[in-house]
Design brief:
By secondary structure, this protein is mostly helical. The protein has twelve helices and no strands. Helix 2 packs antiparallel against helix 4 and helix 4 runs antiparallel to helix 5. The N and C termini lie far apart (52 Å).
Length: 349
């Protein structure tokens, strides 16, 4: 998701970004290739080993991660509409985007209902065990809004009002559940302090749904203005007002997460795959800031969006480099052992 978020942020930036026409599509394409490889494998694993799938859902830690596949699908949908379709993808890209969006909606409803249901019925939870990852299964309905708005003109006209209603319903459900979990997480910080070490990146996850809800509300507002002209620009105005309030809180939380991260790094925070939370959160907040700049043309939003995009690019480069280095380490060790064995064999011979 972090890779797709960076590519889309570059492409959708309302201000000029040097090399955006090449860098943005290239980075998003990398995310699309990874998704095209991993999604069938994940589906096959669920079908062939349903017992493992159920066991993961009953585990309080791994259950939260099932919000990731639909969010990844939505990132691909946005790229199919904004990048693939205008550059030769045409109807094929749009049809693929529609199908993938429907899958994402189904996955969103599943993760947003099943995981919280298991949390209140089966999972053994403690107040000091609340994590930032708790927002992951309820964020996908929020993320569904932007691709829904982009795809709205591609659906048959009679279906568009209903699709818009569904998208608004998803946004409201996702944000309400996210707000409840953010409140619980903040209570955990108050009574059990900021998590240290490898759990610190989880603080950034709160920023993601806040920023994405701004982008989603504005995208749906512009779509609603065309479908329900009797309401004029009321939906757009409501989205901008909502976005102003949420953007302020999201900026506060980003500052809190930054301070906590600096504190954890100074204490020796180890690298892990949790660091991808930095890219996920920053990318979604950048999308929200871009939407507010597009709506208001306020210079402050332009400046902040540029800083956020630069932060996203730096963090993504760092995390991607460390991930590749760790992934390549077993191969490097194997090659080294093979070469040593060959040298020893040559000497003995």
């Amino acid at each position: 998701m972090g890779t797709g978020a960076l590519g889309l942020a570059i492409v959708a930036s309302p201000y000029p970004v040097p090399g955006a026409n090449v860098a943005g599509p290239a980075i998003w394409s990398l995310a699309a290739i990874v998704f095209a490889i991993l999604f069938p494998l994940l589906t096959l694993r669920v079908l062939l080993a349903p017992g493992d799938f159920v066991a993961q859902l009953r585990d309080p830690a791994t259950a939260q991660l099932w919000g990731l596949p639909p969010m990844a699908a939505f990132a691909i949908v946005v790229g199919l509409v904004r990048i693939a379709a205008p550059h030769g993808g045409g109807t094929v890209a749009i049809v693929a985007a529609q199908a993938l969006w429907i899958f994402g909606v189904a996955g969103s409803l599943f993760s947003a209902f099943i995981v919280p249901y298991l949390m209140v019925t089966e999972h053994d939870l403690r107040p000091d065990g609340v994590l930032g990852t708790w927002v992951l299964p309820v964020v996908p309905p929020v993320v569904a809004a932007v691709p829904a708005a982009l795809l709205l003109p591609t659906f048959p006209a009679p279906l568009r009002p209903s699709i818009l209603v569904v998208a608004y319903a998803l946004l409201s459900v996702g944000f309400a559940l996210t707000a409840l979990k953010i409140a619980v997480y903040y209570a955990r910080l108050l009574f059990h302090k900021i998590p240290t070490g490898g759990l610190t990146p989880g603080m950034w996850l709160v920023v993601g749904p806040l920023g994405q809800s701004i982008a989603g509300a504005y995208a749906l507002g512009t779509g609603a203005a065309g479908i329900w002209p009797e309401f004029g620009n009321g939906f757009v105005v409501a989205a901008v007002v909502y976005g102003m309030f949420v953007w302020g809180f999201a900026s506060y939380w980003l500052a809190l997460a930054l301070v906590a991260t600096v504190r954890a790094v100074r204490a020796g925070m180890p690298f892990s795959q949790r660091w991808w939370a930095f890219t996920f959160a920053t990318g979604m907040l950048t999308a929200g800031t871009d939407a507010l700049f597009t709506a208001t043309h306020a210079a402050l939003f332009s400046l902040v969006a540029a800083v956020q995009l630069a932060l996203l690019a730096i963090v993504w480069t760092l995390v991607a480099t460390l991930t590749v280095r760790i992934a390549a380490r077993p191969l490097t060790l194997r090659l080294s052992r093979t070469l040593c064995a060959q040298r020893a064999s040559t000497r003995s011979g």
